[in-house]
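Need the bound structure for iron/sulfur cluster, inputs here:
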Amino acid sequence: MRGGGRGVGVRDGGIQPGKLADRFGRVATDLRVSLTDRCNLRCTYCMPEEGLAWLPKEQQLSDDEVSRLVRIAVERLGVTEVRFTGGEPLIRRGLVEIVRAAAALEPRPRLSVTTNGIGLERTAEALRDAGLDRVNVSLDTLDPVRFEALTRRNRHADVLAGLSAAARAGLTPVKINTVLMQDVNDDEAPALLRFALDHGYELRFIEQMPLDAQHQWDRHTMVTAEHILAALAEFDLRPDEVSRGTAPAETWIVPGYKALDGGPARVGVIASVTRPFCGDCDRTRLTADGQIRNCLFATDESDLRALLRSGAPDEAIATSWQNAMLPKRPGHGIDNPAFLQPSRPMSAIGG
Ligand code: SAM
Ligand code: SF4
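Answer from helper R.:
Posting the output first, comments after.
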């Protein structure tokens, strides 16, 4: 694999005007907004079967509060890309209006949603009309029985319908996110790639990370990028000459296949654990209850909700957001014996 070990060196970085910079000179331009911590699935690598407490309603940002923070990020802090996620973002009633407000900003950010696909069949066109550019849909198996075991819900057909609707609505490239797990679905890598290629979807395998609510992740049994690529040997993947930039996925060209736009088909692997890309990270995260996280694996958060609700002007909120990014750590440190899994699970942070 290319890349890997992309480290960062300390710069004498303080706050940079109009930017979300950290001490290492990284600048965040990609905002992940979690719109809810709730979900209509219970994927085993993400949520427990039951018993996860939801955020109380009054702690969650209103649609207007979310839109205001997105505006501040875009207008004052150099954010150019906004991804709505969760939990399951499609269960947020105000999603279409939140997207519409974001699409009206100047400069207009690129807008996408990461979803499990349930309900996308109904909402894809409205989201596109509101200004959404594209979607990532999570799909870990082609087998409805396995899907039910993995997500604890019988909704496989809804996800497939959501994928088709997204493509029809032009929310392209439609990307599929897949997490493989040993002895659960790791035999499906070639079939999932063939499915994606046949439908013109772009598949990305994501290494499983220690972000499950149950804290059951195990470094020794996780399916690594190396394993995934070996499982795809029959496709004779070729290195992708297009630079990866700050994108987390390393991509490969799949010879003999075309993407929907007529270009070469690609497959990606997001090797967050075994080939961390922290040195190039350009993310900042806003949780559904208005906390800024400078990293998926941060153990601290900065409260913008309290500031927002105290009547603070945009400028003070922007400065607080900049301050929240400064102490971002150089790397997630998963392999460090002192690594501490964040207390909030992926579903509450926003994946
Ligand atoms: N519910 C939506 C979905 O499933 O796409 C959005 C939220 S979900 C947390 C975002 C992405 O994170 C999904 O692609 C999911 O597969 C992935 N994910 C969840 N838990 C994960 C974990 N422990 N390791 C790696 N990826 C994970
Ligand atoms: Fe829900 Fe997405 Fe987590 Fe699955 S991965 S439980 S769909 S938030």
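Comments: The chain has one domain: 30-349. The domain at 30-349 is CATH 3.20.20.70 (TIM Barrel).
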